[in-house]
Every structure is written in C-alpha cells, then in structure tokens.
Amino acid sequence: MPGSKILIYALMFLFLISLVNAATIYGTIYDLSLKKVDNARVEISTTPKQFIVAQNGSYSFNVPNGVYTIKAQLIQKNTVIAFIEENITIKQDGNYVLDLILFPDIEEGIEEIDVDLNEDIIELEKGKDNFIIYATSSLIVVIVLTGVYFYYTKIKKQKKEEKIETKAEEKHEEVREDNDLNQLIKIIEKEGGRATQKDIRKQIPLSEAKISLMIAELEHKGVIDKIKKGRGNIIILKKK
Fold first, then answer.
1. Does the global pTM surpass 0.85?
2. How much is the pLDDT for 201?
C-alpha cells in the first residue's frame, strides 16, 4: 500500500509539473536582530513590476525565467528607514527561497520617497491575468511537493531534532576546547555579537580558507548564524 501511494504521488507530480510555466520566489524579511519585519514593501523588476506589503514578514512572487532585482523597504511616514536589494536568476521552473535582511541606510543617509500608489495599482492591474495563472499553477505544485516531502522526511526530521536537543550543551563545550574556534568566538563577542567575515580575517592570523572552515564548523554546531550580504558574510553569535 505505501508503495502504491508513492507511485500515485510521483505520477501526479510529473503531470502537474508539466503544466507549470513559472517559478515561485518566496522568503522571509528580517531586521539585523533576525526578527521578522512586518509591513515591509517588497517589489520585483518584472514587466510589469510587481509589489506587495509583507504580512508576518513573508513575501512571494510568481515569475517566468529571467534575471530580477528584488527590493525591500521599511517605510515610516514616507521615509525609508531600512532597505535591501538583491539579484536573483531564474533558469527553470520551481521554488526559490530568498530571505532578505533589512539594513539601515548608514552611508547615504535616510532617503525621502514619494510612494505613487496609483501607478503601482495600474501596473498590478495590467499583470493581473498572468499573475493568476502563475499563482494557481504554483499553488498546485506546492501542495503536491509538500505532501511528498512530508511523507518522506517526517520521521527523519523528528529523530534529527531529538539529537540536536540532547547534544546542544555538549556542542558549546567542544567548541570552547578548540583554541582557534575560541579565539574566533571572542572576536565576535568583542564586536557586540555580530561581525563581518572580512573583519574576522583581519584579527586572526590564519588563511582565508582556514577561517571559512572554522565559520562553517561553528555554524554546523549551532553556535553562530552566517548571513550573506552582497559578496561578503555577516557572522552572528547565537545566544545560549
């Protein structure tokens, strides 16, 4: 019986995926403290342009293949107080996860903007028909993928979470015993719990490859989070 269900799910997936001619880009918007940001304005450079106001820190767009720029802004009283701009290339249909972290505009100052809602509404109306097609097709695929994924990974995920929970304290002790890792952690603590990978390299007399391996090990052990920003990385020390 389980084998028959798997075969049915697989056939349904192959049939439905052939109907889809669009990709879904989605993700979560965070601030520098890794808290979800509500009511951020997110837009993507499709033709016509699409935009949404993120609810509960989440956004989603349906697009054809191509190269796009996604821009997120947190606006208060027509003033941008934080923003991020990322590029993404869609080469084939499917789901693409792109989380966004909003950064204050420190170098260039606060930007005053005039939000033309009428223009945005007109652009959304022009792309309404295509958006409905993309959204419907993507929703079907997401439902099927979720069922198949849940069937295969539920038990494995539960076991993995139990292991992580029981060994959480042991991981920190193992990291502290390693002098190089301990030095890296102290540097991040000295920078207030957050530092760029470039700044860390300046303070540790080790090769770039060695530092990258150390950061990967700390991330794997659950001691830090690594967030990609442009061509570099921001390393954030997790709270115990």
1. no
2. 86
